[in-house]
Amino acid sequence: MTTRQQAAASTPQNLLLLALRLRTFVALILVLAYFSFMAPNFLTGANAVIVTKHVALNALLAIGMTFVIITGGIDLSVGSIVGLCAMVAGWLVLNGVDTGLGYTIWFNTYEIVALTLAVGIGVGFVNGLLITRLNVAPFIATLGTLYIARGAALLSSGGRTFPNLGGSEEFGTTSFPLIGTASVLGLPVMVWLLVVVALAAHYVSRRTPLGRHIYAVGGNERGAALSGVKVNRVKLFVYMFSGFCAALVGIIIASQLQAAHPATGETFELNAIAAAVLGGTSMSGGRGRVLGTIIGAFVIGILSDGLIMMGVSSFWQTVIKGVVIVLAVVIDQAQSRLQARVALAQEASANR
């Protein structure tokens, strides 16, 4: 076969590969078009704000999950970290910290946010230690912390809700509800938080040595270690970052509802994984982008809200989300195989 014939033969493969890479954007257009037709009120301004709020929460979780999956890991504990951190924030707003010496330490809103984020990062640090120091498989390590964090959330209140988190002027916590309810320049604060985290994550992943190391660990961990990459430190970072994102979501939910419940965040890890994988993050590691994950989060969010507006049963919604995850993984595997085939064809053409 001549070089020209090889180029002609590879053109359909290149077009198919391009289509697979753009699958998330295509899926977004399709779900928007479908629900706009099937649910006439779907494209209203009020519904767009609601969808954007839902997407912001899922996207924040999914950004952290993306970094973890790129390294070849998985974090099943993010939903439980959301619930635990919501309870921590609620406890600090309502009860402060009893020193046992006859007085209670109260914190203002900024301090409560910082302490709650520290808890999420701490759980992520434990995940990282289990995986890097004790060589526990990521699936098992984060499954264990899923139960531990959820149990701790339940124990913190005996399974009850922390209500009335409006805050107190005396302790400077009246601004706590604003995190989840206020708007700046017409956009909810949670959306601005998503923008900040997404831009920071994009910069780290595409413009810094740490970002290159994250991809290197996922692409070939042994090769990365031999080239001088501190693999354990990279893994610690991604799990701590995932914990940070989950803690931020827990704070936002507790603020938005002005209440904290220990069951907050249940199954959130499934939506985060679905958004990351649908956005092009490879479950085998080494490939993924923050922008793709955000688009994937929009697809999941629009799908969820559209099904609700159409009156679809929550049971069927769960089934559909499961199908979406499976299809995303299948398509990802097909893309990997096609990329390898195209690369081989290009290499053979170059050697002629």
Describe the structure.
It is globular and about 85 Å long. The model is unreliable at 5-9 (pLDDT under 50). α3 packs across α13, α4 packs parallel to α6 (138-157) and α12 packs across α13 (290-309). The chain has a domain at 44-266. A two-stranded antiparallel ribbon has the order 1-2. A two-stranded antiparallel sheet has the order 3-4. It has 14 helices and four strands. The relative contact order is 0.19. By secondary structure, the protein is mostly helical. The longest helix is centred in the C-terminal third of the chain and has 38 residues, at 314-351. β3 and β4 (187-188) form a beta hairpin.
Secondary-structure blueprint of this entry?
Blueprint: H1 3-21, H2 23-38, H3 45-70, H4 78-95, E1 97-98, E2 104-105, H5 109-132, H6 138-157, H7 178-181, E3 183-184, E4 187-188, H8 189-207, H9 209-219, H10 221-226, H11 231-257, H12 268-278, H13 290-309, H14 314-351
Antiparallel strand pairs: 1-2, 3-4
